[in-house]
Amino acid sequence: MFEGFFLILLIKYSRYLFQDFISMKKVFLFFLFFQSASFSFSQGIEIGSWRSHVNLSDIKQVVDANDKIFCVSGLGLFSVDKTDHSYQQFSKANGLNDVGISCIAWNKNTQSLIVAYNNSNIDIIGISHITNISDIKNKSIPGNKSINKITIDGVNAYLSCGFGIVKVNVQKLEIEDTYLIGPNGTNTSIKNIVLTHNKIWALTSSEIKYAALSSNLLSNYAVWNSISAPFQINEIASIGDSLFIRSGDSIFTFNKGLFHLVFNQPNKKILWLKESNNHLLFSTQNSNNDSCIINVYTASFKRLHTFSIQNYSQNNTDAINDLSDNSYWFTDLYVGLFRNSNKSTEHLTPNSIHYNSAQYFSEKNNELWVAGGSLLDGYHYSFSATGFYSFINEEWNTIDRYSKQALDTVYDLVSVAISPSENKIYFGSFGWGLVEYNKDDGAIKVFKKNNSTLSNVDGDPNSIRVSDVQFDSENNLWMNNYGATNAISVKKATGEWKSFKMQANTNNFGKLIIDKNNQLWMTTHEVGGTTGGGGLFVFSRGDDIDNTADDKYRSLVKGSGYGNLPSNNVFTMAEDKDGQIWVGTDVGVAVFSNPSEIIKGGDAEQIIVSNPNDSIAAYLFSSEVISDIKVDGANRKWIASTHGVWLMSADGTKEIYHFSEENSPLLSDRVNAIGINNTTGEVFFATENGICSFKSSATGGGEKNEKVLVYPNPVPHNFSGTIAIRGLVDNAFVKITDINGQLIYSTKALGGQAVWDGKNLSGEKTATGVYLVFCTNEEGSETTVAKILYEK
């Protein structure tokens, strides 16, 4: 009871701390005596950190690495601890140098993992560091430079490349030699390399080449011999002196110049063939594709073991046998990683998103929802069946046609809106109507012509294109019905529907935002044209939705007096916290500063920025194609383009960050969409190589200090990151003191979050102890106090 009393007392008078800190020493001591409990809160990642959110279920390769299993998915890499089954994900966010892995291999002699990327870049992951070898990537080599397979021999790794063989000394971390073994020393693509006791064998697109492994002249094409087979060779593998060859659905051995058929079964497809821990493994599948079997054989092709994975995988891609406990690890292209031991099978794939595409983000109450579809240039179908995703409590959940039958005939989900009054999420499908998802029971309802005012595209009776969906301040759900005669529809808060026909030169409305005045801003597309081209269209529905007499609208295009857009190719819009409308075009950004009067008139203005190195001024991003704009809790602007993403100051004149794939863990320079979790400050980027995120310093602020959190708290002794105080009133004033009332640091919150680097006003790192955080709004009417403990 005393604890609560003194806390209330301190909060009540904390506003005076901004006038006189010393007079409050006794209150500090009371607070410390009665309020001794501290707390911490999981925030996912630290401020300033990155992470990737790519699909880890589409596994194409698995590798045994002592006490860990490494797996390569389409865009990801992760490991599983064999003992406790814990996961570790590897990406650009924690040290990798590239994106898109073609293959990996474990070198037990150097205790390192060799990672080859689709662009021929190479990383070697050692015990304590990652070394990048970019020679192949950077070298100008005619033809294909891809790395198809990696073969280990002692401290060396042989890379099967699109032009030949590259020998890497993994111990020295350098390329040692290159072998061009095509006719007369020309380039030839190598699919795979295997080693017997005294020979190196290379599979090309048409034959097998071999040479003495001990030869010092392997770079001389003349020492390589050729073996032509009377059939197409798909894969080779070796154990000891035994060479195995897969041709379609048959397996042969090669001995003394002859091929011997050792396996062929009717109605059995062979999916792959490999060596694993001195055993021959291959996967077979029934011709009806409903059953997969892993087959394990010796070097003399004696069967040791087979086991069915019918109930777990119909798209088996790889497997290994773990001799340490006689278990088997196998993969599926869609479901992930499994472990089989003692006739029991367990699924061991980390939580992840199930697709790498994303078109639109929406966030509310610390829940991120993602439309997973995509559109081709010119606003054309892509027939993407990726469904939609949510990121809640650090867990991804994917909902698609495999989990919900109602989505069987729904493609291209390209927009998302979260209901402010119901537990429902809405998605616009470009061609298949409006999708409603009920979070309470998981039910899905699809709105089309029969149960809404949505209608088909003129001339295409089967296409109902909802290009964007947004709620207004009265909980009415508006949507652009792209290409329809009545191109705007609304599902009112009452559940009733209404549609509107615009007297405009186009009904091809794309992106949509609704401003504070309940005006609809829409990108427009020229009829039959490519993406954009028609400028903007603003629609004011008046005070009464059902009264069309008070409806007003205006087209905004290039030219003074007509809207003054820098270009008619408009791709995105955003309303900032001051009510201004920011517009992204193919030649930069423009701003409407008085949108409440836009129907009557008014033009956009472009922001002028100057180069600090010279006196030349230019318009903001005038050479960039702007794909998305989002506003964070501090009213700063996140701007995406085909050259990365920028964070600009609130007025757009100062660059805070510019992230590209070269200077950051951004997965690609081509950023299609941005999403901001205003609760945590994490900013998500949808790129052509998947989703990644950056923990920013700003969050959404409120009218009150609510659920104020300090993290990390306690602060570890060796912590060198950023301490955050979250849940504050918007743009709060924050002061940090020691227990004696000495001012240590002061700042202003970025939206609802203040950050501190742990240093005092002199730039010195603070000592072990307890520090108090006093927060208030400008008027001093909304105050709160928090505590930070620095551990010894």
Protein topology:
Layout (H helix, E strand, L loop, with lengths): L1 H12 L11 H10 L15 E4 L5 E7 L2 E6 L3 E5 L5 E4 L10 E7 L4 E6 L4 E4 L4 E4 L1 H4 L8 E7 L2 E6 L3 E5 L4 E6 L10 E6 L3 E6 L3 E5 L12 E3 L7 E5 L2 E6 L2 E6 L2 E6 L4 E9 L2 E8 L5 E6 L5 E6 L7 E7 L4 E6 L3 E6 L2 E4 L12 E5 L2 E5 L16 E5 L2 E5 L13 E6 L5 E8 L1 E6 L5 E4 L16 E8 L5 E6 L5 E4 L5 E4 L8 E6 L4 E7 L7 E8 L11 E5 L13 E6 L5 E5 L2 E5 L15 E3 L6 E3 L6 E6 L5 E5 L2 E5 L6 E5 L11 E6 L5 E6 L2 E6 L13 E3 L11 E4 L6 E6 L4 E6 L4 E4 L12 E8 L6 E8 L2
Antiparallel strand pairs: 1-57, 2-3, 3-4, 4-5, 6-7, 7-8, 8-9, 10-11, 11-12, 12-13, 14-15, 15-16, 16-17, 18-19, 19-20, 20-21, 22-23, 23-24, 24-25, 26-27, 27-28, 28-29, 30-31, 31-32, 32-33, 34-35, 35-36, 35-38, 36-37, 38-39, 39-40, 40-41, 42-43, 43-44, 44-45, 46-47, 47-48, 49-50, 51-52, 52-53, ...
Structural notes for this entry:
This protein has 792 residues and is mainly beta. The chain contains three helices and 64 strands. The protein is globular and about 90 Å long. Mean pLDDT is 91; it is low at 1-42.
Average pLDDT, rounded to a whole number, is 91
* N-C termini distance: 31 Å
Low-confidence stretches: 1-42
Indicate the structural class.
mainly beta
User: What does the largest sheet look like?
Assistant: 8 strands, antiparallel
Count all strands and give the number: 64
Coarse shape: globular
- In DSSP terms (H or I, runs of 4 or more residues), the helix count works out at 3
Beta-strand content estimate: over 45%
Rg:
31 Å
Helix content: under 10%
